[in-house]
Design goal:
It is an enzyme of class 4 (lyase). The chain is mostly helical and 454 residues long. It is built from 18 helices and six strands. α8 links the parallel β3 and β4. α3 crosses α6. The chain binds arginine. Arginine binds next to α6.
Length: 454
């Protein structure tokens, strides 16, 4: 494509080193859409006849059909998806094909294609996030009132419910959706017409092209448009956060599936065995999700580091943006699919959760609140309960089985009704504020998500 000023062919190793078609072929659909819109503007500018435009459009669509049928032969010598498609078009339709690249560079072309790719993949990822949320909401509804210990520092803290716990992840994934949509809004501007760096003396209708491609606007600075990869970093960040959320869920489920916790059982279809130990049933999906999240951070870091030292505008370093982007998209999408399936098939072992949540220590804070309601300042109440906890630990008597006399010996502020504190139903019912794990809140939030995700 640039042979005019060169007297030697490109060395084989340079071709191998520089080719991107082995992965950027994935942009073909967006590349073709961009080219058809570009040709449309050339037609409107009187630079193509109707016949030429039609043969470009039909030629590009026939290339697309061949790619999708698996009949297209990608050539490494042609470096990337853009040159492969353009050269095949020209081979098929002749002279008109050679006019297509007027007022366009691969620099604005790749920026356009990548934005279109990100936009489409954000939409697909949002759908998958919704599927994952649906799986969590369904499971949360099934175990809305199944009580379990909540943990801080992985030490038993206060009682919550499986419903409340799983709905926490639904909230996280909702922020992921909004982060991705926010990124989508910012990236949806058309760089086409920025040329290699400084636009073109041949002025095509940029706004018309943008409209045809579904962009909300055109970029305002040709140099920025060529050099900008913010949208890729933003998208990689948003995907890395999705990974973080799935990874934390994975960690919860790994713990829940251990014999030590025993709260959950994953289906046989979503676990693996051991080649040696016949009894094993391993939560590999969770571990893989946790492990792959490291890759997502790596991909974000790779692009940020690749871009940070680049002078304006295009530098070939920017070609290194695509593999991390494609990898994060594929990794997160597959993770969402498999996790949604796994959560849908998961069972909670209510005998185990019930036994664990019956630990009266989980209500030590409620006991302090009880003293507060009787007029004791919280700091004193905390210490009076601490003494009861110490007595319980020393004497081996569960906190709810200390006698009234033992309580009143610690402090006369403890009343005859002290043991009522250890009623779990009551403990949940007292938490009436929004956001707390009471049955009404959980039901309300479940209904909210069920409607939103319907
Ligand atoms: N394959 C290139 C990339 O992904 C396209 C742009 C190439 N432009 C250039 N002047 N070499 O970045």
């Amino acid at each position: 494509m640039w042979k005019g000023r060169f007297s030697q062919p490109t060395a084989d190793l340079v071709q191998k080193y520089g080719e991107s078609v082995s992965y950027d072929w994935k942009l073909y659909k967006h590349d073709i859409a961009g080219s058809i819109a570009h040709a449309g503007a050339q037609l409107r500018a009187g630079m193509l006849t109707e016949e030429e435009f039609a043969s470009i459009r039909d030629g590009l669509l026939s290339v697309q059909a061949d790619i999708e049928a698996g009949n297209f032969i990608w050539s490494q010598e042609l470096e990337d998806v853009h040159m492969n498609i353009e050269s095949e078009l020209t081979r098929r339709i002749g002279a008109a094909g050679a006019k297509l690249h007027t007022a366009r560079s691969r620099n604005d072309q790749v920026a356009t294609d990548t934005r279109l790719y990100c936009r489409a993949e954000i939409d697909a990822t949002v759908e998958l996030l919704h599927d994952m949320q649906r799986a969590l909401v369904t499971k949360a509804a099934e175990y809305a009132e199944t009580m379990i210990p909540g943990y801080t520092h992985l030490q038993r803290a206060q009682p919550v419910t499986v419903g409340h716990h799983l709905l926490a992840y639904v909230e996280m994934l909702d922020r992921d959706v909004s982060r991705l949509l926010d990124c989508r809004r910012r990236l949806n501007v058309s760089p086409l017409g920025s040329g290699a760096i400084a636009g073109s003396t041949i002025c095509l209708d940029r706004v018309g092209i943008a409209e045809e491609l579904g962009f909300d606007a055109v970029t305002e600075n040709s140099m920025d448009a060529i050099a900008d990869r913010d949208y890729i970093m933003e998208m990689l960040f948003a995907l890395a956060v999705v990974g973080t959320h799935l990874s934390r869920l994975s960690e919860d489920l790994i713990l829940w599936c251990s014999a030590e916790f025993g709260y959950a059982t994953l289906s046989d279809a979503h676990t693996t065995g051991s080649s040696l130990m016949p009894q094993k049933k391993n939560p590999d999906v969770c571990e893989l999700t946790r492990g792959k999240t490291g890759r997502l951070y790596g991909n974000l870091t790779a692009v940020m580091v690749a871009v940070k030292g680049l002078p304006l505008t295009y530098n070939r370093d920017l070609q290194e943006d695509k593999e991390p982007l494609f990898d994060s998209v594929a990794t997160v999408q597959l993770a969402l699919r498999v996790n949604a399936e796994m959560v849908a098939a998961m069972k909670i072992n209510t005998a185990r959760t019930q036994a664990a949540v019956s630990d009266p220590m989980l209500l030590a804070t409620d006991l302090a609140d009880y003293l507060v309601r009787r007029g004791v300042p919280f700091r004193s109440a905390h210490s009076l309960v601490g003494r009861a906890v110490a007595l319980s630990v020393e004497s081996g008597t569960p906190l709810n089985e200390l006698t009234l006399a033992q309580y009143t010996e610690i402090s006369p502020e403890y009343g005859a009704d002290v043991h009522e504190v250890f009623n779990l139903e009551r403990a949940f019912a007292l938490r009436t504020n929004p956001g707390a794990p009471n049955a009404a809140n959980t039901a309300r939030r479940l209904a909210f998500w069920q409607e939103k995700l319907a």
